[in-house]
Amino acid sequence: MIDDKDIQKIKKGLATKEDLEKFSNRAFEVFATKEDIREVKEDINGLRESVQALTVSTDRLVKAVEGLRQEFVIIMAKVDRHEQWLHQIADKLGIKLEY
What we know:
Layout: H1 4-13, H2 17-30, H3 34-93
């Protein structure tokens, strides 16, 4: 048989009249209007364009950095070659190079 303790447990799980009134008052706040959806779509389109612009800018930056890296490697090879020539010239002239 159901006793008072069981009824109290059941009441705890059920919504009261006040709970239902609060929910019904807030229910219209939950739904988006067509205007809200339109604004969200416009925001998403704007974000999409921004992301695409950032992607293009990042690609350009990566290409520029790669170009600079390649140029740096070429210049370092040239500097090493010049340093080697200077040592050869110094050896032939009998000059001691100090760092």
